[in-house]
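#random but structural
TW: two for the price of one
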Amino acid sequence: MTLSPVTASGPATTARAWALVTASAFTGGILLGVLTNLGQGWLPGAWNQIANSGAVWSVAAFAAGALVSARKAGLPAVGLPAAAVAGLCAESGLVVGYYGYAEVARDGMGSVFAPLVWLGMAFVAGPLFGVAGSWWRGARPRHRVVGLAALAGVFGTEAVHYAWTLHYAPQAWACLAVAVLTALLMGRTLKERVLTLLAAAPFSLLAYVVFYELLLTTLLG
């Protein structure tokens, strides 16, 4: 008799925790999406590209996954699913916030094709970077290196894009600096920092080829 209330409250507690994770991540993503849209008007010249970069958006999913892992979100033994969902909600919220603000407060978002493409990418990148954030918070050194290399590498990808495609040298150096500092400041040991940098370099080049040269060129021209 004394165990019955605890058993009954388990599913309800888990449901509330999942609702908190999804609602918080999605709401935060919407707010960041609005801010990135505003940032394009605030930042001068070519620097306005930084506010709308895929690397900056990926940070939201990474942070959401890391926060879920740090707090456990009231979801014992399901850390990675929670991190993946949090990353997905954060990334999709960014798309909704960015294009929603463009539609309501600016001249409109234009064709719905581009928002749908970015939303589709959010369904891929969101869970991946959410899990990367969770791995970075974890206890396994190999997972921490891979998770952190994903975050550093996506800024390396932006650096390649700015240097090779757009020819924006200052922005390229800035993204490269962020990639290196990410590994140096967020790695726990010297070995992890070195391995993260070594893993981030090929990841940057591979992600550039797949994301910019294949996907975006094919889908958006």
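TW: number two ↓
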Amino acid sequence: MTDRTAPVQEEPDTPSRISESIVIRVPPETAYAAISDVARMGEWSPECRGAWIIGRGGPARTGMRFIGRNRARWLPWPTLCRVVEADPGRLFSFHVSFLGIQVAGWTYHFSPLPEGCEVREEWRDRRAGPFGMLLTAVTPLVTGVVRRRARNRATMRSTLVALRDSLESGR
């Protein structure tokens, strides 16, 4: 295995959607369990520092809400997230909002392979309408990130490599 992520995609990237994937030598259920435990995301992501579950904990389920804890450079910011699909070993997806404005959708697809699984991480920009445009304009002031699409692609690659290294080493 190299640090390069696999270029497999189900649909092409667009200005409002990007994806990255990697092969990990663990069963899809193992990779899903790690990703869907949103509090652990800070172990792998260079931007997300983890999450706090709102209400009842336990395994991820559709409708579960959590507060994402993020930081780029020195600037921290929270996001409100809601799980929209939780299908163990196959798919984990959540939507993100900030101050009540839709921001993004994150989806993780888990595909079985003879040597383990492929994990594909997908980001969709959900900012729309006048409030979405306003949020797009002020986001760099809140997050310190000017080129969100490019930043997300880089952090997705880093996250997937760190996830692979962690899971393959048994952590």
